[in-house]
Amino acid sequence: MKLIALITIGLALGACTYDEGPFTGPGQDPDQKSVSFANDIQPIFNLYCTNCHSDRHSKLKLVPSLSYNQLMLDGLRAPYVDIQVPDNSLILGYLKGIPTTMPPSGPIPGFEIETISRWIESGAKND
Ligand code: HEC
User: Whose CA is nearest to atom 7 of ligand 1?
Assistant: First the structure.
């Protein structure tokens, strides 16, 4: 009986930490009004990109201290982030497999791509 009570309390406490919806990754709520670079976008980079896109590897550095300024620089064939025509953003292309998929191991969940897309559509602010 005692054990069941403990398990019940445990489940109740556990449930509280997940009250933001069914998603568990960074940038979790695609319906939220505004997307914050620091709170929603950078955590996605930290999770999927920075093991390669760091100081020692790629031209495009996505580590917290450099990522925003890097994204504001032009990519090779298109701007990484194009506020005027969001679909032209190089970073969105790569996330969707154009010309190749980033990360190379396979695409990140669609709702996280959507979060990045909405950040660009809302002006790609450094907030
Ligand atoms: C396993 C390593 C690896 C991971 C993880 C990875 N990338 Fe890459 N990425 C590369 C390599 C290698 C290149 C091509 C060479 C270069 O730009 O240095 C590249 C190129 C790119 C480019 C094009 C750069 C340019 O100037 O043309 C973009 C944009 C990009 N990655 C975005 C991302 C994003 C966003 C993530 C995370 C969602 C990610 N990558 C995860 C290895 C990786």
Answer: 103
CA–CA separation, 10 and 117 (whole Å)? 37
Ligand 1 center from residue 127 Cα (angstroms)? 23
- Distance (Å) from CA 62 to ligand 1 centroid: 9
Query: Ligand 1 in contact with 48 (CB < 6 A)?
Result: yes
Span 90-122, pLDDT tens digits: 999 999 999 999 999 999 999 999 999 999 999
Taking CA atoms, 89 is separated from 3, 32, 79, in Å, by: 54, 22, 6
Domain coordinates in residue numbering, the chain: 2-121
pTM for the full model?
A: 0.80
Cα end-to-end distance, the chain, whole Å: 50
Q: How far, in Å, CA of 111 to CA of 28, rounded?
A: 8
